């Protein structure tokens, strides 16, 4: 018996971006109701599939993410100035060692699993509950937006300290940190616990428009590529990758500001006679403009788009596959 799964929810990317919203009817199998599964099983399916997808998304493309962080540096060291992603990767490997582009990947893996599991658990639960209240049996965009926003709060609360602050400091050229624990201890001792959430508001401000742009673009593409909303890996990959690229390019200015807040580049801040630590998105926006004008807001856009396209495609295919596989397995056990 053939089974078909509708698309559930768009995946976003990033450094830091969590998966995006999708229609409340997600997960319907032909001849079987996905949501008719026991609530615990459905919740566990979302969490497992989301955790695996999150880890895969962040780790497979991690070297490109390392390049993106460096290319967003506002006043880079002369030895860390790159013209392309390929040149940057080649330079990093030849001058700093084969494993340098992967430094910090362990903390990203540790954070991505629980962050994405929490995201999907919260999103799927809230999406269904709110849709039943706001538009029974229909697709409520308001419910999708509220559920995605709340889920993003949880996702970023876990990922911001690990994936942003610690990871990005380890990725920088001539980073004084050699290990995750060493970085955590030093930042905690010299800058206080608040340093781990210094860019949290910027991260949220970036992820909310990222999700909106990604969702709209994805839905428009799906109308043409997969109008029947069947389980179709090819359409997931193509639509997700294009939507991720568009959203990534549009939100690059916010990502540049986030990187500045996370890394606290001493050279850049000293050149403007800024003492202490930079905090707040408004301050970051003004500082970026003072350092490089409008073009500075789009530093690393090439690396960000190159990173986001395949990572979004990976996240889509992995999440949908595991969700389909686990649901199919549970339905077969029931019958």
From TrEMBL:
Which Gene Ontology CC terms are recorded? mitochondrial inner membrane
What are the transmembrane regions?
Answer: none
Biological process terms in GO annotation: iron import into the mitochondrion
Q: Can you say where in the cell this protein is located?
A: Mitochondrion inner membrane
What Gene3D superfamilies does the record point to?
Mitochondrial carrier domain
From the UniProt entry, list the residue stretches annotated as the region Disordered. 1-31
Q: Which domain of life is it from?
A: Eukaryota
Major localization class: mitochondrion
Q: Which InterPro entries match?
A: MCP, MCP_dom_sf, MCP_transmembrane
Q: Which GO terms describe its molecular function?
A: ferrous iron transmembrane transporter activity
Function as written in the Swiss-Prot or TrEMBL entry = Mitochondrial iron transporter that specifically mediates iron uptake in developing erythroid cells, thereby playing an essential role in heme biosynthesis.
PANTHER family assigned to the protein according to its UniProt record, in alphabetical order: MITOFERRIN-1, MITOFERRIN-1-RELATED
What protein name applies here? Mitoferrin-1
